[in-house]
Specification:
The chain has 275 residues and is α/β, with parallel strands linked by helices. It has one domain: 3-Layer(aba) Sandwich (Rossmann fold), CATH 3.40.50.720. 42% of the residues lie in helices and 13% in strands. The protein has nine helices and seven strands. The chain has a seven-stranded parallel sheet with strand order 3-2-1-4-5-6-7, with helices on both faces. Strand 5, helix 6 and strand 6 form a beta-alpha-beta unit. The longest helix has 29 residues. It is globular.
Length: 275
């Protein structure tokens, strides 16, 4: 199996890893994450409301590993459904070493005064309350084990503004940053690490689409993120190499968070020649 030695070095080989949102329907991050864990030799469990997407991820995993990926169809905003799934997973595997919460989304872009309350509530429920429900369900399992890793999904929008979304999205994703910090404080004495990533725009390379995205010109690294970039950050934060990292949110955006202008404008403002 590919990357097994790295999985052993990172302490992920044979670990039981749950990827909530592992179907990867939104932007491919969940699927890329589940695939990477499996390549490192983890026993991968996929939770997703979209059963077909989850089963496709499992099919891809099963094509290269002898350890079959398991699928649970779960709405992560349904407290009872999440609770049942966690109990069933613990009964099957007897432990949960990693919980990666790769779930999120928004319903478009409107000004605050034009955003219906139903949309606000639905997106807060998905992006923030879902993380609360799942974390609260898995925490007792990890406390009994006295070990575990939880990785949550924030966003570059949660660090600043939702340029292409309504206010509910950055509000919910900013909430993840603080929630991860507080959860890390409460869970730390039980040897549980809690962190988050804040992805920038993420999708498979598309020259036509990327060329029209003004954010590309402001990215110091000169490209937008791919699902695999986010997956690597998530896996790192759940590895033994990140044992002393907790309560942090890692920006995975090619430098967009630190940039407010394109490089040519930057040179002009600093009286430098433009090549």
């Amino acid at each position: 199996m590919e990357n097994v030695e790295l999985g052993k070095e990172w302490g992920l080989f044979d670990k039981v890893v749950v990827v909530a949102g592992g179907g990867g329907a939104q932007n491919g991050i969940g699927r890329a994450t589940a695939l990477l864990y499996a390549k490192l030799g983890a026993q991968t469990v996929i939770l997703d409301i979209n059963k077909e997407a989850a089963e496709e991820t499992a099919r891809l995993i099963n094509s290269f590993t002898e350890e079959a990926a398991a699928v649970w169809q779960v709405d992560i905003t349904d407290e009872d459904a999440v609770g049942r799934a966690v109990k069933e997973i613990e009964a099957k595997y007897h432990r949960v070493d990693v919980w990666a919460q790769i779930v999120g989304g928004h319903a478009g872009s409107t000004l605050i005064e034009d955003t219906p309350l139903t949309v606000w509530r639905a997106n807060i429920e998905l992006n923030l309350t879902g993380a609360f429900i799942c974390s609260r369900a898995i925490l007792p399992v990890m406390k009994r084990q006295r070990r575990g890793k939880i990785v949550l999904l924030s966003s570059m929008a949660g660090r600043g503004l939702g340029y292409t979304t309504s206010a509910d999205y950055p509000a919910s994703k900013a909430g993840i940053v603080t929630f991860a910090r507080q959860l890390a404080f409460e869970a730390g004495p039980f040897n549980i690490n809690v962190n988050a990533i804040a992805p920038g725009p993420t999708h498979e390379p598309n020259p036509e689409k990327d060329g029209k995205d003004v954010r590309l010109s402001m990215a110091p690294l000169g490209r937008l993120a791919r699902p695999e970039d986010q997956a690597r950050a998530i896996v790192f934060l759940s590895s033994s190499w990140a044992e002393m990292i907790t309560g942090m949110t890692l920006d995975v955006d090619g430098g967009l968070y630190i940039s407010n202008m394109d490089y040519t404008t930057y040179l002009v403002k600093h009286s430098c020649p433009v090549n």
